[in-house]
């Protein structure tokens, strides 16, 4: 019922995540139908062990799956489908988050990727990635749907697919040069990635974006290899967003401006996101403080 509600609300990505959660529960408990009586504190511990040991999910993925399950249970209590005193999460603690190190490209690596000679679909994938970087770390689904009319007088105006947040920001010359490269191309979108009419149905649109992103990610890795970028197999389209965020935090103290560019709903989200890049800062501090110890 919970998944059906998400389908009715056109929340395709959320529905897919909860369908995956249901599949994992069915495998863990060896049952097509999951009864509330199975979701005891002990049952949650068994599910946590299953996620870690059988599915080999990392600590943060494990926590996310259990957080989604908690949301289902909370909704069931609200709907009266489960008595409040039967909520297993009252006597169960979610596993702790593990530190996250987000992959990002340094500015000189972005420049190297821009400069490498590419053709065809690999060039399109590279250009979309670089545009994302210059467009405030724009997400893949939004980049794929950018239309010429979204760019006027050097500004990009669009609504984020994920959050519904409106975005209005100036584009640097490098981003406008990329857009000009595709001026007059066939199709309604700036980048020839999605076919015309893709956005006529919300569910089909999300499926096409997901499918296209697989190919785009593969081509970005290949482009990074040609550009001589370190660990190219770890680079995906989303790394453009991480790279922008890291570049922005190093060049401004205005956290609010960075938050608005990323489309975060609050500063707390931005602070948590940017904190995942702090290892480089602490490494530099340690080197500044203790780097000359061997000279004593």
Q: From the 3D coordinates, which CATH architecture of the largest domain would you assign? A: Orthogonal Bundle
Give the CA-based shape: elongated
Placed side by side, the strands forming the largest sheet appear as: 1-2-3
CATH homology-level superfamily of the largest domain: Intergrase catalytic core
CA radius of gyration is: 22 Å
Order of helices and strands: HHHHHHHEEEHHHHHH
What descriptors fit this protein?
three-stranded antiparallel sheet, DNA integration, elongated, 13 helices, 296 residues, mainly alpha, DNA recombination, 3 strands, single chain, Tyrosine_recombinase_XerCD, hpI Integrase, Chain A, DNA polymerase, domain 1, Integrase_recombinase_N, DNA-binding, 2 domains
Q: What would you note in describing this structure?
A:
This protein is mainly α and 296 residues long. The chain folds into 2 domains: 2-91, DNA polymerase, domain 1; 107-279, Intergrase catalytic core (hpI Integrase, Chain A). It has 13 helices and 3 strands. Strands 1-2-3 form a 3-stranded antiparallel sheet, with no helix packed on it. A hairpin with a 6-residue loop joins β2 (155-159) and β3 (166-170). The longest helix has 25 residues, at 202-226. It is elongated and about 60 Å long. The model has no long low-confidence stretch (mean pLDDT 85).
């Amino acid at each position: 019922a919970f998944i059906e509600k998400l389908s009715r609300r056109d929340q395709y990505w959320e529905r897919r995540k909860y369908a995956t959660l249901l599949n994992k529960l069915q495998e863990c408990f060896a049952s097509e139908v999951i009864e509330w009586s199975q979701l005891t504190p002990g049952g949650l511990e068994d599910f946590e062990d299953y996620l870690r040991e059988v599915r080999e999910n990392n600590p943060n993925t494990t926590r996310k799956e259990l957080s989604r399950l908690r949301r289902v249970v909370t909704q069931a209590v609200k709907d009266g489908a489960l008595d409040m005193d039967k909520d297993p999460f009252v006597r169960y603690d979610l596993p702790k988050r593990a530190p996250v190190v987000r992959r990002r490209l340094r500015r000189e690596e972005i420049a190297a990727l821009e400069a490498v000679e590419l053709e065809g679909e690999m060039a399109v994938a590279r250009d979309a990635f670089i545009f994302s970087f210059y467009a405030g770390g724009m997400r893949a689904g939004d980049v794929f749907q950018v239309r010429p009319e979204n760019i006027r007088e050097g500004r990009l105006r669009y609504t984020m697919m994920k959050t519904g947040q409106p975005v209005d920001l100036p584009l640097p010359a490098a981003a406008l040069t990329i857009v000009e490269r595709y001026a007059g191309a066939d199709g309604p979108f700036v980048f020839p990635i999605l076919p015309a009419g893709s956005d006529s149905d919300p569910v089909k649109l999300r499926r096409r974006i997901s499918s296209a992103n697989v190919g785009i990610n593969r081509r970005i890795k290949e482009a990074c290899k040609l550009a001589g970028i370190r660990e190219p197999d770890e680079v995906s389209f989303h790394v453009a967003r991480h790279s922008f965020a890291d570049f922005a935090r190093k060049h401004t103290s205005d956290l609010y401006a960075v938050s608005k560019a990323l489309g975060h709903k609050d500063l707390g989200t931005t602070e948590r996101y940017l904190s995942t890049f702090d290892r480089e800062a602490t490494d530099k501090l340690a080197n500044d403080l203790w780097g000359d110890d061997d000279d004593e």
